From TrEMBL:
<feature type="domain" description="Helicase ATP-binding">
    <location>
        <begin position="48"/>
        <end position="321"/>
    </location>
</feature>
<dbReference type="GO" id="GO:0016818">
    <property type="term" value="F:hydrolase activity, acting on acid anhydrides, in phosphorus-containing anhydrides"/>
</dbReference>
<dbReference type="GO" id="GO:0006139">
    <property type="term" value="P:nucleobase-containing compound metabolic process"/>
</dbReference>
<dbReference type="GO" id="GO:0004386">
    <property type="term" value="F:helicase activity"/>
</dbReference>
<dbReference type="InterPro" id="IPR006935">
    <property type="entry name" value="Helicase/UvrB_N"/>
</dbReference>
<dbReference type="GO" id="GO:0005524">
    <property type="term" value="F:ATP binding"/>
</dbReference>
<dbReference type="InterPro" id="IPR014001">
    <property type="entry name" value="Helicase_ATP-bd"/>
</dbReference>
<protein>
    <recommendedName>
        <fullName>Helicase ATP-binding domain-containing protein</fullName>
    </recommendedName>
</protein>
<dbReference type="GO" id="GO:0003677">
    <property type="term" value="F:DNA binding"/>
</dbReference>
<dbReference type="Pfam" id="PF04851">
    <property type="entry name" value="ResIII"/>
</dbReference>
<dbReference type="InterPro" id="IPR006555">
    <property type="entry name" value="ATP-dep_Helicase_C"/>
</dbReference>
<keyword id="KW-0614">Plasmid</keyword>
<dbReference type="InterPro" id="IPR027417">
    <property type="entry name" value="P-loop_NTPase"/>
</dbReference>
Amino acid sequence: MVDFAKKIKNKEKKILTNPIEIYEALDRQTEKVGSLRPAQIRVLNEWFKKRLNDHDVILKLNTGAGKTLVGLLMLETKLHLKSYNDEPNYGIEIFLCNNRNLVFQTMRQAKQFGINVDTITPDNEIPIEVINGEKILVTSVQRFFNGKSIFEHSNELEIDTIVIDDAHRSAELIKQSCEIKITKKNNAQLYTDLFNLLSDGLESQGEGTFAELKNNSGGYDSSYLPVPYWTWIDKIKEITNLIADKIDTSELRFVWPIVKDHLEECDCIIAGSSIEIKSLKFPIEFYTKYVHAKQRVFMSATTASDSILISDLGINDKAVKEPLIDPNEKWSGEKMVIIPSLISDKYSRQQMVKNFGKAKIKKFGVTVLVPGYYKTGDWEKYGAVIGTTDKLQESLKKFDDGEFSSPLVLVNRYDGMDLADDKTRILILDSLPTTESLFDKYISDVIPNGAEVILRTAQKIEQGMGRSVRADTDYSIVIFIGSDLVRFVRNPRFQQYFSGQTLAQIKIGISTSNDAKSEYKESEKIDYNPLFDLMKQSINRNEDWKEYYKEQMERVDYSETLPKDLDFLVKKNKIMEMIVDPIVKIEKLTQRLQDFIDNYCSLSEEKGFYLQLLARATYNYSKSQSTKYQTAAYKKNHSLLLPNSINPVEKINPLIAAKRIDNIINQVKSYKNFENFMNAANEIFSSLSFGTKSKTFEMAIDELGKILGFETDRPDEFYKKGPDHLWAVKENLYYLIEDKSEDSESRDKINKAETGQMNNSVAWFKQNYPGSKYIPIMVIPTKYPDPAGGFNDDVRIMRKKSLNLLKNNFINFVKEFRTLDFSSLSNGQVLNFISVHQLEVDKFIMTYSEPYYK
């Protein structure tokens, strides 16, 4: 064997430390990987020369620009630097992926690049080559972030640099690692024990919902109640003992070490089949190795807003303000956004679902993103494939193999799915994204227009839009359906929360959709030509469309990178740190929180939310002062916790006929123009269907009542007692309405808890409105009470057929205003519209309801 070492003239071995030079020297598989791209070179040079010692770095590159290689090269550079400085024990280098499949994929890519990597052994140990600084460790977020992590149990182990792929998705996984979720399915006894222990506090926050939870009659965790903090704190010892007795179960084993000493600083929400317990502030400090890593690199898409990572991952605001970017990189790929309802109001969600659900397209894939399973029923009815756990992999494999036919419907998969090129040429976002966890639902329900809620919703929309375009040369049509989604993307206030690239695409979509409106031809049949003609210009690669898109996207100012509401989130994070600090000075916290509310909360609902946090923080110091804060919070936002000290019922006045007409005219005028009015009506229409989430359905019923001119109230929401809705419809007559919107259309009985709930609502009405007349109405798919229960009154039932009739008559009533001047509406016109569409009070009950079966 030839000894080449003897033939080397320069015996001194040079250790490369520049990432560009390191890459050029790697033993790459040249047939699979080539040279570094210009964008990669620019960000690596910037990092090496100026950001090498920064604690936090956010790396932002367009999808498909090669972030994985950049992250691996950063870690490889750190290995070289340790060798160059003779510091082998300076700490290990780690690359974290979202799941096991991505771990294996990253390791395969690293091998192609010639980068030495390894992963945790089957014996749950870190390979010695990683510890010795010879290899990079590639593992999953779940293996690193859990209460029994091997990284936290090694005192000697230090981390030099940690790279986290897809930081926003990783943040969600990391937060889940710190939250307790107890399910009836896996922990029935613990669920029952906690429910019983906390039941007095729960019932005070909603008697009807409590009855649903107690009898497990509220559907799929749609009904929930927050445990009042005063109940939680007062019973914390009993709570701790109950949970500690079950810590060996799968749901508690890996999270208990994180929260066991901080349960008092947690909130709790209970639903029909699960309980969630979550710290007021995400306890990232438990992960000391992560916190004290010498450098943390977070990889993020250019369209993502990174400011929420301040609270989610404890990133410093400097990294958010100054991300590592390629200054020459602008937009990536082509997205033709289309909003069908802007072309014609006949292009409703229902028509789009019917049209695309039945489509059999062989040349490419059609993918639909829906927020939850409650939106899949009509898609499935028309032939779409629902991506349930058992069907998803099979469907994705067909896409990979180029086998296309029926649309694929993905449920709440706004991130983590790459469906590039022909896998998805038509992407449909159906309705506004919603949240998964009970806590996220609660926040969305109590402050639906809060800055952080809007920011996270905008981020989900952007993530969803990115599923189908994964490279510069990729293209896709992105269709928005569902009036709630359309209203969101068109709202000027909400548009501020989108990235410049995404907002430009949305504005192009609004403009082109409006342009196509003039091509629509009114007839008995729906004219789909304007929509299809527009879509063909993308699918057939029309050169004028491509040039127009490029021209518009190049006008965007990509130099503006400062995230929206960054200062708000920084200040909020500091406030939350004070709230969970056991030795905080309450006077200082009170002043800081009040300043925060005054300077950063413009909405009454948001001010109330933070006042409730102040009330909670004050509880252990002064219960009377806490009650004052909670009362003030509740007065600003009736969706918050109801304090025990007040009786908040504010009666609504009886309605006279003339006042109803005035109410309708004022309500119509509040929308400014017919387009806004029609969008609001369409949102109500689409929300009033069985299978819709209760909060959404209840808001729609309330808005329906207002547009119909009635005086409305939501006693169960605002006062935690009474019916879901109370409508004053004429002098001394009220409708008491209970909604059961999430129930299956195929159910055959009204259960005992539901009849009891209606009876309790009637009793509440009699107590608070003595002498007034009432008609109780239950919106539910069946009219047959369970023999075990029964109504005390002649309750009217609104089933699917009656509900649909009301919806259709309502939408036709709204359409009457299409050509009218909103500033000069007359009483006579409105009275005529009410009569034509069967919306008179005297006919309402007989037209839209029926007696229950006796």
